[in-house]
Amino acid sequence: MVFCHSITMEHESSFPFAFMIQWDGVIIMFQRKKVHVENAMQYYVTRENGTEPPFQNAYWDNKKPGIYVDVYDGTPLFASFDQFDAGCGWPSFTKPLSTQEIKVQEDYSHGMSRTEVRSQSSDAHLGHVFDDGPEEQGGLRYCINSASLRFIPYSELDEQGYGAYRHFFKIEEVHRK
Question: Which residues are designated catalytic?
């Protein structure tokens, strides 16, 4: 579970984090005007460009309608109606909600050439994009770590401040899952 609480800082810092505390496996980061409490896996994935284990993460087989937001700042990134089962063990999407909310860059780590996907707003590592997705939907597969996301169920969009995204869902999509 991720807890995010807003606070007001006395002065702005040009650094991404004013300071960080690690205590008993929990990392607390104080960022400009926000406090983020994360588990060790979220930190490893989003800040150390790590990868969580396949088939052992929160959303690899999620079938509920809703949106996925940046675990740091709540920016909407992906939606369940673009999610598909790629058989890889991570949540896979055919596209982001908005290409303006993500950035891609070449990644040559681990002796491979891949395209990394990061959050535009928080600079969190999200995963990678590959060209082996469903052809009829553009051919891309955004392979994203669950640890970089928070899922907002369709039924909670309004109460969590994402009501504007309700219109993206077809009524049959909501009742089918």
Answer: 143
